[in-house]
Structure prediction request, 202 residues.
Amino acid sequence: MADTAEMERFSGNTTAGPVAALVRLHHTVFSALENALAGWFNGFAARFAFASLLLVYYLNSAWNKLGDGLLGFLHPSVGAYASIIPPVFDSYGNTVENVPFFPWDLIVIAGTLGELVLPILVVIGLFSRIAAIGMIVFVVVQSYVDVMYFEVTGKYLGAMFDRFPDAIIFDQRMLWIFVLLMIVVNGPGKLSLDHLLRRRFG
Prediction:
């Protein structure tokens, strides 16, 4: 009986030995990686992904919505009305002058200015969490308008848990929102203006 117990203990040790060593190695390596990246990587990576994928897209879209002159955002283009409030603009004969200032002109001005300013704030890390929340709202509204008024349907709409990864709405924009949520939850990280301001005034 003693020999049997000894053999079982030896067998357990030989099994636990390599497993324990692997667990310790895993913990050591990834703890070191986590410590090295803590406080700066997640926010920076999310902002870098946003900048590389969406910054130029949104700035170009906003630029096309601006009116003439230095204060063009106060006098948005026809395209701004057609893309931001399509049913309202259509109901007023697709004529900017016929659209009431309150609330519709204000909505178009705010949408144009937001599309221009919010992406820049996200990328440079200034008021990042507020800017990221604003961008999430913008993406949701953009997607709603695309589906309801520009009739983005079928394979372009997509669905959750289907086998196709390339739909514009459920696939692409859900990933956009996920990147922005990383900033809302984790902040922009140490490589940001928010961090500098917090060190200076916090």
